[in-house]
Recover the amino acids of this structure.
């Protein structure tokens, strides 16, 4: 009905429209004025591609299922050889030509006006979700044969679903890796293949994937995608069997594929989600004599019929939710790690905050959001602290208690992120008891002389021994330092407020300029702040422009330059081997961390342009339903599918702000920030006049979106 309405007014109003554009806009304004405020930007209508699932038909073969106790793989990283955009089904995008005839411009104008009246268009679409792109964290040796230690390292080998995998069969020596693919040379009298857990680790039989509702079960039914197809990419010659099994090893679906092609072929089979139901494993087996290369196995998902801006928030929240353990109520640092092995404290707070926002959208229930926040706060409140500072990472020790992960620190900035998140979650949920407990904990943090260097700058934290201060201090201009000082302002004995006044973040690293705006709307105020005398939005916009210009200037022939991709920030290094801090001040940077696309959206001139970038990422298989990839290379020939909790958190909160900004509707997070007395203290270091502001209506930030 919405689409028919829009097409109808297009036909009525595009006849000799140019002279009356202002009249059409006025009519739209009046119509919206009857039902609400007209704020935000018009989003272009996107007509989804009607992706059909083609079937192929070969014969039958037999294969053995993986044992439930097969080796579990945990791990931080892996770099993928990205499939060619033409190689697999992908959503079609409506692309705007460089120049349009007047009538086309008029039609687009009316459609945008209608979108303002009716709201963003709901889009049920079919999207590719890889189960496993077969790439490695090492350079495969000639011949494609590696030791089992290389094939399955429990910290750096995982699927695109944030799960583990392993090898099965009598001919495992006939399976190895080549660049971006599995190499198979199966002896005639043997068989072999791979198993892939579809939810959690293979040994966690309680975790299964519901093909009818793929996201975690606490997400509401209307927001659930479903699996409607399977895709296999292979070349060579041989018989391959693919099967989907339950946790009890019962076969729920199977299909035999006969491959006989020197070129890479894509096989697509329809799946009936209702018939399959809950599944645990996807396995493939190569029969004796098979000789070929397997590129990837993927699902085709049908997304819920919601607008794209809401889908971006949903997919980002679901990515973060994959890292959360319902058993422990901790957020794992990455989805594929065993519960209690490596948990992330600031991400716990950010997940509570993201869940509170999801509840406001009806994606989860209010009761679930409240219970979750209470469980997380109860966990964290029982951790040992150092001068009130929380550990960055924790694990479950042999006595069953959680404590600091050996070799890590009690961190000022991670404590600040956790408490900012929890204060906001409690405020959004109206949970006064939780807010009181969090407030008391923040006020008890000791940021006295021991935590300051000789110049009065706050230290990064305390060592594992709870006594020795870290040498590094929060001096640099940027959001991390701002959050630490804001937390200090809420303290019973605030520290000196000192911070560099350069107006430039360290190395031009993306997230540092934006992290404060996850929590505070105040940094959208163009008034120079009282501490560093800098115009924060101007500095952030300048950095964003430099980020967008980096690849066209430094790598003009790169795919990133051609497709408008950007994001020199911090996260996992290439292939997940270590940690990378990139930025526009550095030369030769070639790895893009796309969380910055969402984090910087509040600095963008036009929200629709940000969504255009996200659509191009989706088209390039960099933003599947399980969430944005961790990073990708400048030529989009490798990417890292790791589901990491911290960057997922940044994406989740930022995508919410982007949605509210683009729609011009009330941002519940920012509104909560303006209501909370302690957060007003935090903001007052930089903007003293904001200490008494309690709503957007009283603020000097313009519209709820921060736009004029």
């Amino acid at each position: 009905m919405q689409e028919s309405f829009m097409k109808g007014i297009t036909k009525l109003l595009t006849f000799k429209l140019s002279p009356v554009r202002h009249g059409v806009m006025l009519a739209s304004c009046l119509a919206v004025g009857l039902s609400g405020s007209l704020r935000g930007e018009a989003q272009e209508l996107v007509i989804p591609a009607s992706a059909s699932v083609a079937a192929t038909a070969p014969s039958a073969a037999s294969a053995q299922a993986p044992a439930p106790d097969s080796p579990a793989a945990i791990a931080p990283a892996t770099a993928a050889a990205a499939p060619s955009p033409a190689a697999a089904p992908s959503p079609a995008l409506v692309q705007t030509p460089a120049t349009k005839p007047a009538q086309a411009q008029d039609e687009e104008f009316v459609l945008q006006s209608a979108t303002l009246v009716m709201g963003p268009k709901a889009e049920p679409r079919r999207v590719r979700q890889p189960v496993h792109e077969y790439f490695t964290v090492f350079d495969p040796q000639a011949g494609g044969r590696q030791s089992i230690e290389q094939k399955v390292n429990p910290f750096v080998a995982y699927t695109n679903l944030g799960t583990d995998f392993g090898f099965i069969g009598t001919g495992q020596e006939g399976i190895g890796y080549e660049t971006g693919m599995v190499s198979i040379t199966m002896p005639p009298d043997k068989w072999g293949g791979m198993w892939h857990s579809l939810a959690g680790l293979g040994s966690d039989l309680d975790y299964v994937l519901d093909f009818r509702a793929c996201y975690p079960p606490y997400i509401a039914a209307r927001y659930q995608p479903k699996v409607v197809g399977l895709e296999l990419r292979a070349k060579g010659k041989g018989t391959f069997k693919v099967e989907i099994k339950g946790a009890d090893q019962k076969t729920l679906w199977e299909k035999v594929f006969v491959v006989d092609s020197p070129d890479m072929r894509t096989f697509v089979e329809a799946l009936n989600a209702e018939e399959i139901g809950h599944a645990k494993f996807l396995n493939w087996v190569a029969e004796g004599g098979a000789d070929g290369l397997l590129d990837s196995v993927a699902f085709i998902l049908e997304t819920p019929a919601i607008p794209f801006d809401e889908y971006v928030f949903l997919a980002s929240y679901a990515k973060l939710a994959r890292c959360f353990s319902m058993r422990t109520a901790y957020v794992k640092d990455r989805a594929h790690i065993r519960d209690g092995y490596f948990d992330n404290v600031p991400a716990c707070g950010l997940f509570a905050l993201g869940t509170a926002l999801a509840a406001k959208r009806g994606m989860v229930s209010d009761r679930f959001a409240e219970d979750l926040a209470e469980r997380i706060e109860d966990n964290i409140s029982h951790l040992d602290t150092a001068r009130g500072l929380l550990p960055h990472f924790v694990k479950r020790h042999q006595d069953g208690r959680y404590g600091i992960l050996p070799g890590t620190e009690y961190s000022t900035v991670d404590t600040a992120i956790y408490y900012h998140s929890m204060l906001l979650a409690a405020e959004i949920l109206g949970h006064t008891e939780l807010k009181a407990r969090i407030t008391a904990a923040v006020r008890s943090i000791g940021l006295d002389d021991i935590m300051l260097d000789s110049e009065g700058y706050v230290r990064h934290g305390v060592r594992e021994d709870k006594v020795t201060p870290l040498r590094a201090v929060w001096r640099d201009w940027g959001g991390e330092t701002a959050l630490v000082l804001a937390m200090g302002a809420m303290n019973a004995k605030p520290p000196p407020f000192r911070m560099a006044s350069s107006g430039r973040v360290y190395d031009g690293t993306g997230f540092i300029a934006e992290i404060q705006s996850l929590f505070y709307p105040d940094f959208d105020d163009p008034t120079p702040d009282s501490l560093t005398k800098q115009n924060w939005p101007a500095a952030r916009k300048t950095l964003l422009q430099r980020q967008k210009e980096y690849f066209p200037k430094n790598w003009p022939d790169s795919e990133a330059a051609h497709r408008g991709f950007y994001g020199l920030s911090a996260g996992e290094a290439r292939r997940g081997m270590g940690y990378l801090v990139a930025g526009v001040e550095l030369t030769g940077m070639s790895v893009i961390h796309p969380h910055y696309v969402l984090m910087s959206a509040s600095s963008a001139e036009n929200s629709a342009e940000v969504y255009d970038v996200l659509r191009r990422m989706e088209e390039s298989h960099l933003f599947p339903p399980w969430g944005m990839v961790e990073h990708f290379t400048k030529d989009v020939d490798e990417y890292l599918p790791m589901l990491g909790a911290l960057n997922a958190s940044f994406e989740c909160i930022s995508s919410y702000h982007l949605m509210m900004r683009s729609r011009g509707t009330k941002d519940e997070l920012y509104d909560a920030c303006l209501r909370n007395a302690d957060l007003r203290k935090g903001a007052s270091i930089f903007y003293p006049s904001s200490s008494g502001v309690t709503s957007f209506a009283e603020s000097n930030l313009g519209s709820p979106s921060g736009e004029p």
Summary: The chain has three domains: 2-48+100-121, 126-302, 306-698.
